[in-house]
Amino acid sequence: PFRIVPQEEDAKEERLDKRSAEKNRKQRAGLAGLLRFMCVLVSLVITFSLQPFAIRPRAPGVNKLKAAPVTVLIAGARHFGARAGVPEMKVNATIDVAGRAMLLPNKYTALRRDKRAKPEDKTVSVAWRKTKAALESALQNTDREVATNDMIFAGSVLVVFGSVVAIVISGAEFAPLVGALLVFNGGRSKGLEPQPELYTLAVMCGLALACGEAARTPTKATKRKTKRS
User: Fold this and answer.
1) How far apart are CA 13 and CA 9, in angstroms?
2) What residues of the chain score a pLDDT lower than 50?
3) Residue 155, Cβ neighbours under 10 Å: how many?
4) What is the phi-psi region of residue 191: left when phi exceeds 0, alpha when psi lies from -120 to 50, beta otherwise?
5) Which of 56, 120, 167, 227 has a CA between 20 and 30 Å from the CA of residue 204?
6) Is the dihedral of CA 166, 169, 174, 179 positive or negative?
7) Per-residue pLDDT tens digits for 132-149
8) Which residues 6+ apart lie within 8 Å of 162 measured at CB?
Protein backbone atom coordinates (compact mmCIF):
# COMPACT_ATOMS: atom_id res chain seq x y z
CA PRO A 1 0.00 0.00 0.00
CA PHE A 2 0.97 3.66 -0.62
CA ARG A 3 2.59 5.33 2.42
CA ILE A 4 3.60 9.00 2.91
CA VAL A 5 7.27 9.26 3.78
CA PRO A 6 8.28 11.40 6.80
CA GLN A 7 9.75 14.13 4.57
CA GLU A 8 6.40 14.64 2.81
CA GLU A 9 4.59 14.74 6.15
CA ASP A 10 6.99 17.41 7.40
CA ALA A 11 6.52 19.48 4.23
CA LYS A 12 2.73 19.25 4.52
CA GLU A 13 2.76 20.31 8.18
CA GLU A 14 5.09 23.20 7.35
CA ARG A 15 2.74 24.48 4.63
CA LEU A 16 -0.21 24.31 7.04
CA ASP A 17 1.77 26.15 9.70
CA LYS A 18 2.67 28.91 7.25
CA ARG A 19 -0.95 29.36 6.16
CA SER A 20 -2.17 29.47 9.74
CA ALA A 21 0.55 31.93 10.76
CA GLU A 22 -0.20 34.18 7.77
CA LYS A 23 -3.91 34.15 8.58
CA ASN A 24 -3.24 35.04 12.21
CA ARG A 25 -0.85 37.80 11.13
CA LYS A 26 -3.46 39.37 8.87
CA GLN A 27 -6.05 39.22 11.63
CA ARG A 28 -3.71 40.89 14.11
CA ALA A 29 -2.75 43.54 11.55
CA GLY A 30 -6.41 44.26 10.82
CA LEU A 31 -7.22 44.60 14.52
CA ALA A 32 -4.20 46.85 15.09
CA GLY A 33 -5.23 49.01 12.13
CA LEU A 34 -8.76 49.36 13.50
CA LEU A 35 -7.48 50.32 16.95
CA ARG A 36 -5.14 52.87 15.37
CA PHE A 37 -7.99 54.46 13.43
CA MET A 38 -10.12 54.70 16.60
CA CYS A 39 -7.28 56.37 18.52
CA VAL A 40 -6.69 58.85 15.68
CA LEU A 41 -10.41 59.59 15.50
CA VAL A 42 -10.53 60.33 19.23
CA SER A 43 -7.57 62.71 18.92
CA LEU A 44 -9.28 64.45 15.99
CA VAL A 45 -12.49 64.93 17.99
CA ILE A 46 -10.52 66.31 20.95
CA THR A 47 -8.68 68.76 18.71
CA PHE A 48 -11.77 70.18 17.01
CA SER A 49 -13.90 70.25 20.16
CA LEU A 50 -12.22 73.63 20.85
CA GLN A 51 -11.52 72.59 24.44
CA PRO A 52 -8.41 74.27 25.87
CA PHE A 53 -5.28 72.19 26.26
CA ALA A 54 -3.88 74.56 28.88
CA ILE A 55 -5.44 77.16 31.20
CA ARG A 56 -4.16 79.85 33.53
CA PRO A 57 -6.88 80.46 36.14
CA ARG A 58 -7.99 83.97 36.93
CA ALA A 59 -6.27 85.47 39.95
CA PRO A 60 -5.97 88.95 41.51
CA GLY A 61 -4.11 91.05 38.95
CA VAL A 62 -3.81 88.13 36.52
CA ASN A 63 -6.12 87.53 33.57
CA LYS A 64 -7.41 84.09 32.70
CA LEU A 65 -5.69 82.53 29.67
CA LYS A 66 -6.77 79.57 27.56
CA ALA A 67 -4.86 77.75 24.82
CA ALA A 68 -7.02 75.70 22.44
CA PRO A 69 -5.05 74.60 19.35
CA VAL A 70 -7.68 75.60 16.76
CA THR A 71 -8.32 79.10 18.14
CA VAL A 72 -4.61 79.69 18.79
CA LEU A 73 -3.86 78.74 15.18
CA ILE A 74 -6.54 81.08 13.86
CA ALA A 75 -5.60 84.04 16.06
CA GLY A 76 -1.85 83.56 15.68
CA ALA A 77 -1.93 83.15 11.89
CA ARG A 78 -2.36 86.90 11.38
CA HIS A 79 0.66 87.75 13.54
CA PHE A 80 2.98 85.08 12.13
CA GLY A 81 1.76 85.68 8.59
CA ALA A 82 2.67 89.35 8.83
CA ARG A 83 6.02 88.45 10.39
CA ALA A 84 6.73 86.14 7.47
CA GLY A 85 6.06 88.96 5.02
CA VAL A 86 2.77 87.65 3.65
CA PRO A 87 0.48 90.47 2.42
CA GLU A 88 -2.20 91.33 4.98
CA MET A 89 -5.01 90.93 2.44
CA LYS A 90 -3.89 87.41 1.61
CA VAL A 91 -3.55 86.51 5.29
CA ASN A 92 -7.05 87.77 6.08
CA ALA A 93 -8.56 85.91 3.10
CA THR A 94 -6.87 82.68 4.17
CA ILE A 95 -8.01 83.07 7.76
CA ASP A 96 -11.56 83.77 6.64
CA VAL A 97 -11.80 80.50 4.70
CA ALA A 98 -9.49 78.16 6.60
CA GLY A 99 -10.50 79.49 10.02
CA ARG A 100 -14.19 79.03 9.35
CA ALA A 101 -13.52 75.54 7.97
CA MET A 102 -11.74 74.58 11.19
CA LEU A 103 -14.64 75.91 13.28
CA LEU A 104 -17.29 74.18 11.16
CA PRO A 105 -17.18 70.73 12.88
CA ASN A 106 -17.78 72.27 16.29
CA LYS A 107 -20.64 74.46 15.07
CA TYR A 108 -22.29 71.63 13.17
CA THR A 109 -22.07 69.32 16.19
CA ALA A 110 -23.55 72.03 18.42
CA LEU A 111 -26.44 72.50 16.00
CA ARG A 112 -27.17 68.77 15.90
CA ARG A 113 -27.30 68.69 19.70
CA ASP A 114 -29.42 71.82 20.05
CA LYS A 115 -32.92 70.64 20.97
CA ARG A 116 -34.39 74.09 20.32
CA ALA A 117 -33.11 74.27 16.75
CA LYS A 118 -35.51 73.36 13.95
CA PRO A 119 -34.68 70.27 11.85
CA GLU A 120 -34.20 72.42 8.75
CA ASP A 121 -31.61 74.49 10.63
CA LYS A 122 -29.46 71.49 11.50
CA THR A 123 -27.54 71.57 8.24
CA VAL A 124 -23.96 72.19 7.18
CA SER A 125 -24.92 75.41 5.35
CA VAL A 126 -26.48 76.90 8.49
CA ALA A 127 -23.47 75.84 10.54
CA TRP A 128 -21.19 77.49 7.97
CA ARG A 129 -23.05 80.79 8.34
CA LYS A 130 -22.60 80.61 12.10
CA THR A 131 -18.86 80.15 11.74
CA LYS A 132 -18.52 83.80 10.71
CA ALA A 133 -19.46 84.99 14.20
CA ALA A 134 -17.41 82.17 15.74
CA LEU A 135 -14.37 83.31 13.77
CA GLU A 136 -14.69 86.88 15.03
CA SER A 137 -15.08 85.55 18.56
CA ALA A 138 -11.95 83.41 18.22
CA LEU A 139 -9.93 86.37 16.94
CA GLN A 140 -11.14 88.69 19.71
CA ASN A 141 -11.19 86.31 22.69
CA THR A 142 -7.91 84.47 22.13
CA ASP A 143 -5.31 86.29 24.17
CA ARG A 144 -2.49 87.75 22.10
CA GLU A 145 0.04 86.61 24.70
CA VAL A 146 -0.89 83.00 23.94
CA ALA A 147 -1.49 83.30 20.18
CA THR A 148 1.88 84.95 19.50
CA ASN A 149 3.93 82.55 21.62
CA ASP A 150 6.23 80.70 19.22
CA MET A 151 6.10 77.37 21.00
CA ILE A 152 2.35 77.33 21.63
CA PHE A 153 1.58 78.41 18.06
CA ALA A 154 3.93 75.82 16.52
CA GLY A 155 2.42 73.14 18.75
CA SER A 156 -1.09 74.16 17.72
CA VAL A 157 -0.16 73.91 14.03
CA LEU A 158 1.19 70.40 14.52
CA VAL A 159 -1.81 69.29 16.58
CA VAL A 160 -4.44 70.58 14.14
CA PHE A 161 -2.89 69.56 10.83
CA GLY A 162 -1.30 66.40 12.20
CA SER A 163 -4.64 65.17 13.57
CA VAL A 164 -6.24 65.61 10.15
CA VAL A 165 -3.43 64.04 8.13
CA ALA A 166 -3.18 61.08 10.52
CA ILE A 167 -6.62 59.93 9.37
CA VAL A 168 -5.17 58.93 6.00
CA ILE A 169 -1.42 58.58 6.64
CA SER A 170 -0.14 56.15 9.23
CA GLY A 171 2.66 57.62 11.30
CA ALA A 172 1.44 61.21 10.93
CA GLU A 173 0.07 61.01 14.49
CA PHE A 174 3.65 61.71 15.62
CA ALA A 175 3.04 65.37 14.64
CA PRO A 176 0.18 66.05 17.11
CA LEU A 177 2.15 64.16 19.78
CA VAL A 178 5.07 66.56 19.34
CA GLY A 179 2.60 69.45 19.10
CA ALA A 180 1.05 68.53 22.44
CA LEU A 181 4.52 68.55 23.98
CA LEU A 182 5.20 72.02 22.56
CA VAL A 183 1.88 73.35 23.88
CA PHE A 184 2.72 71.81 27.26
CA ASN A 185 6.15 73.45 27.45
CA GLY A 186 5.01 76.77 25.99
CA GLY A 187 2.05 76.90 28.32
CA ARG A 188 4.14 76.19 31.39
CA SER A 189 6.40 79.11 30.49
CA LYS A 190 3.31 81.35 30.59
CA GLY A 191 1.92 79.84 33.78
CA LEU A 192 -0.77 77.76 32.02
CA GLU A 193 -1.76 74.46 33.57
CA PRO A 194 -2.12 71.42 31.25
CA GLN A 195 -5.66 70.06 30.94
CA PRO A 196 -6.90 66.45 30.60
CA GLU A 197 -7.50 67.00 26.87
CA LEU A 198 -3.78 67.48 26.28
CA TYR A 199 -2.83 64.29 28.13
CA THR A 200 -5.61 62.31 26.45
CA LEU A 201 -4.51 63.40 22.98
CA ALA A 202 -0.89 62.50 23.75
CA VAL A 203 -1.92 59.03 24.96
CA MET A 204 -4.15 58.46 21.92
CA CYS A 205 -1.36 59.46 19.54
CA GLY A 206 1.10 57.20 21.33
CA LEU A 207 -1.28 54.26 21.14
CA ALA A 208 -1.99 55.01 17.47
CA LEU A 209 1.73 54.93 16.69
CA ALA A 210 2.12 51.61 18.50
CA CYS A 211 -0.89 50.10 16.74
CA GLY A 212 0.30 51.38 13.37
CA GLU A 213 3.68 49.76 13.91
CA ALA A 214 2.02 46.49 14.93
CA ALA A 215 -0.12 46.56 11.80
CA ARG A 216 2.94 47.02 9.55
CA THR A 217 5.37 44.58 11.19
CA PRO A 218 5.11 41.04 9.78
CA THR A 219 5.59 38.14 12.13
CA LYS A 220 7.76 35.34 10.92
CA ALA A 221 6.15 31.95 10.86
CA THR A 222 8.01 29.55 13.09
CA LYS A 223 8.92 26.28 11.59
CA ARG A 224 8.05 23.19 13.51
CA LYS A 225 10.95 20.85 13.81
CA THR A 226 10.00 17.23 13.97
CA LYS A 227 12.25 14.63 15.32
CA ARG A 228 12.98 11.71 13.11
CA SER A 229 12.83 8.41 14.73
Assistant:
1) 6
2) 1-2, 219-229
3) 29
4) left
5) 56
6) negative
7) 999 998 888 888 889 999
8) 172, 173, 174, 175, 176, 177, 178, 179
